[in-house]
Specification:
Oligomer: homodimer
Largest interface: A-B, 86 and 85 residues
Shape of chain A: globular
Strand order of the largest sheet of chain A: 2-8-7-6-5-3-4
Strand content of chain A: 15-25%
Largest sheet of chain A: 7 strands, mixed
Number of helices of chain A: 13
Radius of gyration of chain A: 21 Å
Structural class of chain A: alpha/beta
C-alpha cells in the first residue's frame, strides 16, 4: 500500500508550508506580517457581499457546469474593455485561476507531455502539472536581466516531440515583470513555428505601473486558436476566498473538450458565483485606486530593499511581488528562523522562500518572494524587520 | 496543436450532456421534470443561509488550504455519530466529494495505475480517473442480483501489479444498493490480501431505507490505514451548490501528502465553508424527515415503474437512485427524444442514460438512472410521462 510517486515528488507550497510556524509565533503573542502570500488587505467591493446577502433561494442548487450565465456575461463584458470579444461558449467558470490552469494542462497534455515555462514561475504550476502528469520544462530568466525572456534559440533547445505548450504568467508571479512586445513576439513566433499552445496566466493584468502598457496574448493577431487564457477575480477584486476564475479561448473545439472537465466536477460554488457576477457593477474608480495603492506599496517596498546591504532586486512594473536576492545561503532556513526565533518589538514577517518557484534543483536558494499586499505602515514595519533580521541572522 | 488524447477519450457527463435539449424544451414552453441529476428539491437548512448572511468581513480572504477549523471540527463531531474519531489532521475540506475522489486517486495512483470499481458506478469516476491518469477497471454487478458484489475470485482475476485501490460508493450511485456485511468483508479481505486502498464514497450514508443498517468501511477493524473516505454535504443537507466535501483517513502519512494538493489549489470557497460549518447546529429531525421523504419517493417511483410493461428494476435500499432497464434499445436516443419530441400536456422528463455509468463498452444501453429527488406529485407526473413515452416511442 504505497503512496503515489508523483505526490511524494510534489513539494509543499513555499507560500504556505511555513504556516504552522507562523501560527505558533502568533500563539506566542508575536505579530506576523504576511508578505508570503498574495492575500491583499484591500477591501473586496461591497457589491460582492450585497449580492451574497441578497441570495434568497430555499435550495442551494448546483449551478451549470460552465458557470452561471450572469457571471459568464460579466466576464464577456469585462474582456470588451481589452477589445476582446468572447462568445458564451468560449468562457468556462473555474474554481479560481488554479483550476483554469489545471484544466488547460489536462486538455493539452497527455501523460509525460512537456510544457515550457520561464523560470522562476508561479509555484503551483508544479503541483498542477504533477497532478495532471505533465512535465514543467523550465527556461531560465534572471533578475539581473529584468526577467526578460532569453533568445528564441534557448526555448528551441528545450523543445521535444512531447512539447505541447508554453505557459507563463504576465505580469509575472513571482517576478513582477511585465513582458514587452519583443518578448511577446518571441513567444508568438515560437508557438506558431512549433505548433504549441500558449497558456496565458493573466490574473494580474490590471496591476501595471510606471505607465507601462500591458498587452495580452489574447490580443495578438494570429494566435486566436493557440491562446488559452487563465484568469481570476481573486487579485483584481481582492476576492481570493471566492475561488472564482475562468478559462477562456477562441478555440471552440478545445473549449468544448474542457467542458467535460467542468461537468466532471459538477460546478463551481453557486453563491460565490452570484457574488462575483455582481462585480460587473463596481465603478472603474475602484480598480484605479487599487492600482495606485499597489504602485505606492511597490515604491515603499523597493526603496526599503535598496537600502539593505547585500540585497539586490529589480524594480518590477507589474503584479504585486518582488523577487529579491538576500545575502543568506538558504532562505528556507532564514524564513523559518524569522518566524521561530526573530522579532523586532514582538513583530516578525513571513516571506515565501525562493526555491519553490523553480523547477531547476538548487536555484532560488538565496531568494525570497515578497508580496507587497499590506498597507504602507505595515509594509514599512515589515521591511524594517527584514533589515534587522538580516543583520542578526548573518552574525 | 492537438487536443490531449485523454480529454478526447473522456465522455460528456450522461447526467448533464442533454442539458441543451432540456433548455431548448423549456424555451418552447415545456415543463421538464429533472430526474437526471441528484439535485434534490428539499430545502437547505436555514442555518447555512443565516451564516452566509452574517458573514461580515471586509476582505474575502483565502481560507486555510486544509479548510477552516470550524468546518473541520464540525465534520469531526458529525463522524462521532458513527463512532468514528477523526483528528484534525485526518480531515481535509474539498470542493465537494468530486475533489475528494480526485485527490484520493492522485495520492494512490501513478499514471497507468489501476483502480477496481464495481460497475455500474458513479459516472464521474471516469473523468476523475482520466484527469488523474488512473485506469478504472470495472467489475460487473447486475440488477437481477441486486448489484451484490461477485465472488472475490472475480475481483482477483482483474488484479495486476498496477492495481492500487478499490473504489466504490455505498450506498451506491447509480444503483441505490447498500452493501451488506458479506460484501463488505469481501472488499476488506481483498484489500488486505492484495495490499490495496479502499476509496469509500459514502455521500449517501444517511439515505437508508426499510430499516437496513448502514456500515461504513471506516468502521471496519483492521482497515484503519487503508480506507480513504470521500464525503460531501451536498446530499444530506441538500446543499449541492455549496461544493463542500472532505477527504478523511486515519492514514496520517497519506493525509499529509494530500495536503500538498490542497495547498496547490489554495483553498475551498470561504463563504460556503462558513455556511457549511453552521450545519452542525441543524436539529437531527431535519435528517430524519429527509430520509422519510426519500423513502416515500422511492416507493412512489418504484411502484410506478413496476406497472410499466417491459420495465425491470430492483427496489433499492439506499441513496436516491433507481437504475431501471427499459424496453428500448438505446436510452441515449430515448432520453434525447423525450426532450425534443415528446410531451404529455406540455410536460416531459429528463433522465440520465445508463451507458455513461459503465466503463465496459456497450453496457447499460437499455438502462436509465432515475433520481427520485422531486416531491411526490411531480414524481408521479414524471413517471406518467415515462409510461406514455415508452408506449409512443416503441410504436
Amino acid at each position: 500500500m504505497q503512496i503515489s510517486k508523483r505526490i511524494e515528488a510534489m513539494q509543499f507550497s513555499p507560500i504556505r508550508k511555513l504556516v504552522p510556524f507562523a501560527e505558533a509565533a502568533k500563539k506566542q503573542g508575536k505579530k506576523v506580517y504576511h508578505l508570503n502570500i498574495g492575500q491583499p488587505d484591500i477591501e473586496t467591493p461591497q457589491e460582492f457581499f450585497d449580492a451574497v446577502k441578497n441570495f434568497d433561494a430555499k435550495v442551494l442548487e448546483y449551478a451549470f457546469s460552465q458557470g452561471i450565465p450572469e457571471l459568464i456575461d460579466s466576464f464577456i463584458e469585462y474582456y470588451k474593455l481589452f477589445d476582446l470579444n468572447y462568445e458564451k461558449d468560449e468562457i468556462l467558470i473555474t474554481n479560481g485561476g488554479s483550476e483554469a490552469v489545471f484544466f488547460a494542462l489536462v486538455a493539452t497534455c497527455d501523460y509525460g507531455d512537456e510544457v515550457l515555462v520561464p523560470e522562476p514561475f508561479y509555484t503551483n504550476y508544479n503541483s498542477f502539472s504533477k497532478s495532471a502528469g505533465a512535465v514543467v520544462v523550465p527556461v531560465a530568466t534572471s533578475a539581473e536581466n529584468g526577467f526578460k525572456l532569453p533568445d528564441i534559440s534557448v526555448f528551441e533547445s528545450k523543445i521535444t516531440p512531447k512539447t505541447k505548450a508554453i505557459m507563463l504568467s504576465n505580469p509575472g508571479n513571482p517576478t513582477g515583470a511585465c513582458y514587452d512586445m519583443a518578448d511577446m513576439e518571441k513567444i508568438k513566433n515560437l508557438a506558431i513555428k512549433h505548433d504549441l499552445y500558449i497558456i496565458a496566466d493573466e490574473v494580474y493584468k490590471e496591476m501595471i505601473y510606471d505607465g507601462h502598457k500591458f498587452t495580452s496574448f489574447t490580443q495578438m493577431e494570429g494566435l486566436e486558436e493557440r491562446v488559452i487564457l487563465t484568469d481570476s477575480i481573486s487579485k483584481r477584486y481582492s476576492a481570493c476566498g471566492a475561488r472564482i476564475g475562468c478559462v477562456a479561448s477562441k478555440n471552440k473545439a478545445l473549449m468544448a473538450q474542457i467542458l467535460k472537465l467542468c461537468q466532471g466536477r459538477l460546478c463551481v460554488a453557486t453563491i460565490e458565483q452570484i457574488g462575483a457576477a455582481a462585480l460587473a457593477r463596481v465603478a472603474p474608480s475602484y480598480m484605479e485606486n487599487v492600482v495606485k495603492e499597489y504602485e505606492k506599496r511597490r515604491n515603499v517596498c523597493f526603496a526599503a530593499l535598496q537600502e539593505m546591504e547585500g540585497v539586490t532586486c529589480q524594480k518590477p512594473n507589474g503584479a504585486f511581488y518582488i523577487m529579491a536576492d538576500l545575502p543568506v545561503k538558504d532562505t528556507d532556513d532564514f524564513c523559518e528562523w524569522l518566524l521561530k526565533e526573530f522579532h523586532v518589538n514582538n513583530e516578525t514577517v513571513m516571506f515565501a522562500p525562493g526555491s519553490g518557484f523553480y523547477a531547476t534543483e538548487g536555484k532560488g536558494k538565496n531568494q525570497i518572494r515578497i508580496s507587497y499586499v499590506l498597507e504602507e505602515e505595515s509594509l514599512k514595519k515589515a521591511m524594517n524587520v527584514l533589515k534587522e533580521a538580516l543583520k542578526a541572522y548573518n552574525k
